[in-house]
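Q: Please design a sequence for this.
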């Protein structure tokens, strides 16, 4: 099978395509023929080995898992012994946050892992939405019905998912985006949309239960006036000089760096939200697997809207 290989940390040029053996599903595993994957911030950070302490999970000196890729959507090709949840021919989607391997024509995943059947109304290439939504959910799940959230950077994979997940929880959403994405944010359900190029969102005179930086371009110090008493600031990156990490320790409950958990449970919940139409993917460019280096370069520009897809199907 064709697969995207990373043998060393570095820029996108570190990647190369290779023919490797199709994996064999073990007991309790399913072999999925991958039709579509994504290239996302997790993939680009893992390729660079950044932040350095994350290498404790991905490999200190070289990547522990050679095949890149986290999100996948495809068809169950074969089942290992003891598999009961899936059958050959099932359309499935999910992610592989521990072993990666989704940038290949086939991937093996545990039947009890982060994988679910694609709801019937959803096209297969629109089901690769897990990574951004998973990271968004770790912040949004702190919201109760009727509470409010401001999402800075609501046009990327994490931000577009956060708007929809917050609305699904019955929260009031204020989205901060650039001029190109004002209509998009409204269409996703944001009740108030601010253009950061013409308005200082930190000076709007409102406060929120949660302020979420979905792109890592602001800070707690810039946003703290936006927080209600007991409100929470969450960022999807470490902040200047890793300030979000030490502020989370010092400010106890006021600052958070979300680390998503329970990937299998999240994917099952996401399937239900997709089925009901409450969450859908927002997509930017799509690349053939032969152009994977260009896909990584584009994601690293930080200018994508929503999700960048990578096609694996021949």
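A: Design:
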């Amino acid at each position: 099978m064709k697969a995207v290989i990373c043998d060393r940390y570095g820029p996108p040029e570190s990647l190369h395509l290779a023919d490797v053996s199709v994996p064999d599903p073990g007991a309790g595993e399913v072999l999925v023929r991958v039709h579509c994957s994504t290239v996302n911030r997790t993939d680009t950070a893992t390729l660079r080995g950044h932040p350095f302490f994350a290498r404790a999970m991905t490999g200190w000196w070289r990547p522990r898992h050679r095949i890149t890729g986290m999100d996948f959507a495809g068809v169950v090709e074969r089942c290992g012994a003891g598999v009961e949840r899936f059958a050959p021919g099932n359309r499935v989607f999910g992610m592989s946050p521990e072993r990666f391997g989704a940038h290949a024509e086939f991937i093996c995943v545990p039947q009890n892992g982060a994988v679910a059947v694609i709801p019937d109304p959803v096209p297969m290439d629109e089901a690769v939405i897990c990574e951004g939504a998973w990271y968004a959910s770790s912040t949004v799940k702190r919201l109760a019905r009727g509470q409010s959230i401001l999402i800075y950077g609501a046009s990327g994979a994490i931000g577009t998912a956060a708007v929809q997940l917050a609305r699904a929880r019955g929260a009031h959403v204020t989205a901060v985006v650039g001029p190109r994405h004002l209509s998009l944010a409204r269409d996703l359900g944001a009740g108030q949309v601010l253009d950061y190029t013409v308005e200082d969102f930190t000076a709007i005179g409102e406060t929120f239960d949660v302020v979420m930086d979905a792109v890592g371009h602001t800070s707690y110090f810039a946003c703290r006036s936006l927080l209600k008493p007991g409100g929470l600031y969450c960022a999807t990156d470490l902040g200047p000089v890793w300030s979000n990490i030490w502020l989370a320790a010092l400010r106890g409950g006021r600052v958070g760096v979300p680390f998503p958990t329970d990937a299998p449970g999240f994917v099952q919940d996401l399937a239900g939200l997709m089925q009901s139409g409450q969450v859908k993917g927002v997509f930017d460019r799509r690349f053939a697997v032969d152009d994977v280096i260009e896909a990584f370069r584009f994601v690293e520009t930080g200018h994508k809207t929503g999700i960048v897809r990578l096609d694996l199907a021949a």
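Q: Thanks. Anything notable?
A: The chain has two domains: 2-129+281-311, 131-256. The chain is about 25% helix and 25% strand.
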